[in-house]
């Protein structure tokens, strides 16, 4: 393993220059204060809900939530930003570091589409590189840098486990990627990491100041509707992103739901449910393979299956009221992604393919 970054990494050199002199908006909550009568934020004094303090603006970064995620992740509270899902964190990074019409990002496909879409909405160019045939980072990464294909990119996005393939990239390969792009911010999206925690690189944040890790409570923690995600990064990156973040990104009900989910009871529930989903996913994967599909290794809460006749498989699902995910990406034109679900629904999906298999034999 090669050494850490040779030159000190300074995210200020990557940030949009106007942010370096920007005075961040100071909301009433960020200014703070002490007292019994609060008339500093143009709020209503009337609480018409059973939820305490919902008539008041929430903290920008609720301390209870941040501290709860710090305990869970093992990352210092000062290195965590809570956001409206990981999707907002993606946009915050692009807004902070990419100059519209000038800068670019890199992503490796097929992968999560919001990296490129978020960039495009801010007029930031996208260098779309391909994962290998087995959905790994290309071995020729150093030569790609020499060809300036990614050396000038402000941000490199790596999804691990990768959505939608479900494949994982070994931790040492991620570390090599971080080392190979010392002039870029390397963002590792760990939205599904609870399903394969050994692959997390969050413990490398102290070693690589150009590393950012994205997390979410939408998947394993079953809070997709709450929209709560996290950005894990070094102090300097956190400081810059906090200059562009919305005044109140985490609604009070979301903060309370998320904090409860991150309690020890909540974490225990999550881990039990993850084990259940993995078991049901294994059953589904086996059934799809028996049907004749090529099934990729599943490291998230979903499996990607490739079919000889994807149209027939899609029709069988649709006719039975099962909504799965198909893709327009040419590399996935014959594939369907199945999210893992409970035993009852898994039984119904398996039965569809077992019935089809018996019909074809007959």
What's the gist of this structure?
The chain has 362 residues and is of the alpha/beta class.
Question: Which SSEs are present, and which pair or pack?
Answer:
Elements: H1 17-20, H2 28-31, H3 63-73, E1 80-83, H4 85-97, E2 104-109, H5 114-121, E3 125-130, H6 141-146, E4 155-159, H7 171-180, E5 185-189, E6 211-216, E7 229-232, H8 235-241, H9 252-261, H10 264-291, E8 294-295, E9 302-306, H11 310-319, E10 325-326, E11 335-339, H12 343-361
Parallel strand pairs: 2-3, 2-4, 4-5, 5-6
Antiparallel strand pairs: 1-7, 6-7, 8-9, 9-11, 10-11
Helix-strand sequence: HHHEHEHEHEHEEEHHHEEHEEH
Average the pLDDT over all residues and give the rounded result.
92
Q: Helices and strands: which structural class? A: alpha/beta
Low-confidence stretches: 1-6
Largest sheet: 7 strands, mixed
Describe the global form. Answer: globular
Offer a few descriptive terms.
single chain, 362 residues, alpha/beta, 7-stranded mixed sheet, 4-stranded antiparallel sheet, 12 helices
Structure characterization notes:
It is a single chain. With 362 residues, the protein is of the alpha/beta class. It has a seven-stranded mixed beta sheet with strand order 1-7-6-5-4-2-3, sandwiched between helices. A four-stranded antiparallel beta sheet has the order 8-9-11-10, covered by helices on one side. Helix content is 36%, strand content 14%. The termini are far apart. The protein is built from twelve helices and eleven strands. Residues 1-6 have low confidence and may be disordered. The protein has helices at residues 17-20, 28-31, 63-73, 85-97, 114-121, 141-146, 171-180, 235-241, 252-261, 264-291, 310-319, 343-361, and strands at 80-83, 104-109, 125-130, 155-159, 185-189, 211-216, 229-232, 294-295, 302-306, 325-326, 335-339.
């Amino acid at each position: 393993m090669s050494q850490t970054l040779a030159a000190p990494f300074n995210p200020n050199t990557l940030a949009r220059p106007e942010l370096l002199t920007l005075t961040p908006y100071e909301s009433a909550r960020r200014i703070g204060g002490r007292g019994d009568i609060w008339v500093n934020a143009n709020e209503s004094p009337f609480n018409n809900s059973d939820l305490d303090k919902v008539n008041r603006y929430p903290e920008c970064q609720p301390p209870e939530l941040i501290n709860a995620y710090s305990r869970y992740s093992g990352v210092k509270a000062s290195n965590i930003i809570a956001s409206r899902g990981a999707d907002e964190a993606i946009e915050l990074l692009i807004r902070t570091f990419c100059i519209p019409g000038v800068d670019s990002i890199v992503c490796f496909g097929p992968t999560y589409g919001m990296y490129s879409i978020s960039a495009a909405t801010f007029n930031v160019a996208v260098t779309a590189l391909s994962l290998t045939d087995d959905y790994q980072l290309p071995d020729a990464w150093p030569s790609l840098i020499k060809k300036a294909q990614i050396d000038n990119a402000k941000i490199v996005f790596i999804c691990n486990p990768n959505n939608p393939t479900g494949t994982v990239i070994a931790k040492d390969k991620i570390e090599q990627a971080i080392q190979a792009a010392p002039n870029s911010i390397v963002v590792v999206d760990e939205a599904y990491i609870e399903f394969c925690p050994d692959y997390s690189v969050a413990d490398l944040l102290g070693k690589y100041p150009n590393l950012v890790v994205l997390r979410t409570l939408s998947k394993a923690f079953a809070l997709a509707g709450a929209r709560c995600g996290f950005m894990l990064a070094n102090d300097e990156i956190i400081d810059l992103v906090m200059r562009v973040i919305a005044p109140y990104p985490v609604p009070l009900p979301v903060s309370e739901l998320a904090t409860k989910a991150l309690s020890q009871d909540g974490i225990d529930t999550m881990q039990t449910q993850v084990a259940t989903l993995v078991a049901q996913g294994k059953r589904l994967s086996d059934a799809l393979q028996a049907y004749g599909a090529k099934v990729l290794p599943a490291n998230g809460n979903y499996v990607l299956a490739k079919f000889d006749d994807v149209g027939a498989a899609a029709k069988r699902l649709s006719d039975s009221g099962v909504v799965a995910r198909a893709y327009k990406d040419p590399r996935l034109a014959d594939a369907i992604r199945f999210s893992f679900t409970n035993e009852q629904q898994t039984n119904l999906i398996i039965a569809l393919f077992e019935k089809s298999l018996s019909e074809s034999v007959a």
